[in-house]
Design goal:
- There is one protein chain.
- The protein is an alpha+beta fold and 66 residues long.
- The protein is built from two helices and four strands, in the order ββαββα.
- The strands form two sheets. Strands 1-2 form a two-stranded antiparallel ribbon. It has a two-stranded antiparallel ribbon with strand order 3-4.
- α1 runs antiparallel to α2.
- The longest helix has 17 residues.
- The two termini are 25 Å apart.
């Protein structure tokens, strides 16, 4: 594991599992692509997990290009 990465871990009923936030988003988008992921009513924003993951990937590519 790369110590520089941020990790999310489960607790309590499930055994601990270390996963990056990006991996968790990709996994969730694969399992539930058409479910709502982000809703911001006052900005009229509504994204599914598929759309949200695509926007995050686009942002990451832009940051890497910098």
């Amino acid at each position: 594991m790369n110590a520089a990465l941020s990790y999310l871990s489960a607790c309590c009923e499930q055994p601990l599992r270390f996963q990056t936030v990006g991996d968790l988003l990709d996994e969730t988008a694969a399992r539930h692509p058409d479910r709502p992921a982000l809703i911001v009513p006052h900005q009229d924003v509504r994204l599914t997990y598929r759309e949200f993951a695509a926007r995050i990937d686009e942002l990451a590519r832009g940051l890497l290009a910098q």
